[in-house]
Amino acid sequence: MNKSDKEPLIKAASIASLFVSSTLIIIKYYGWAETDSISLLGSLADSLMDFLASIFVFIAISFSLLPADEKYRFGYGKSEGLVVFIQSLLIGVSGLYVFSEAIQRFIHPIKINQPSVAVWIIVVSIVLSIALVLFQKYVVKISKSKAIESDQYHYLTDLYINISVLISILISGWTTYLFVDSLIGLIIAVFVIYSAVNLLKKSFKILLDQELPSSDRDQIKAIALTHPEVLGFHDLRTRDAGRNYVIQFHLELDPQMSLLHSHEIIEQVMEKVIDAFPDAEIIVHSDPLGVEEERDPFE
């Protein structure tokens, strides 16, 4: 599937995310108002942050899909990294809020009102979350979108939260174990904060140009050296630019080779690397074998 075919899928995933998150906010707010459940409040806070994050994702995707231009010649893919960073902050704040509320309710427990209402609301939430996560998983597999991947991650978190809330309501609503609602709220809060930290780390990888994994780097080197006229390989540098990779390296060629033939070899190597990394931007420099030059100190 080429790049133009992926774009409608990415946009559809972001719109579906907005629809599901807004629906969850409405029904969970109603459920919290009716039941006064602290675990349901935690789930509501998480859904509210999901909605705000989904808005940022939609905006970022609109930017990241823009083609490269004169001012931004590598394109706008890194806007996804910025969105993941903002998402991590929003999710972290929601986790801290729920943690605070759960502590207060743990000290002063209150019985859940109308637990059957809360159960139906959470069941609907679980079904919607499963449908969205499965669709997002398909889109990420096709498009490699970092923004949709991070969105999928916290909707998967939301799914786990909804399941734990359902268990909490079933216990607290029909037994005398009122502390379970607060306990589940605390667990949810810790899980949400942990998720926020992971997203923050992921955003730094994109924004700070972290190298690709060693397995990918080894694969790039192996591809280049399979060409019979490539005599050496050095100064491999890679970076994750959001929706695409940037890969650059030097090839060592016969110093007696013509410039035209050198160009042909580079094109052949680039074609093979692009086959392995379809969304990558490839930059290759040729060096005459045996010429002394300053090398990458991290090679």
From TrEMBL:
GO cellular component terms given for this protein: plasma membrane
Membrane-related topology note: Multi-pass membrane protein
Record carries keyword Metal-binding: no
Localisation: Cell membrane
Domain Cation efflux protein cytoplasmic per the UniProt entry, residue ranges: 212-288
Keywords: Cell membrane, Membrane, Transmembrane, Transmembrane helix, Transport
Major location (coarse): membrane
Annotated TM spans: 12-31, 51-69, 81-99, 119-139, 159-177, 183-200
Name of the protein described by the UniProt record: Uncharacterized protein
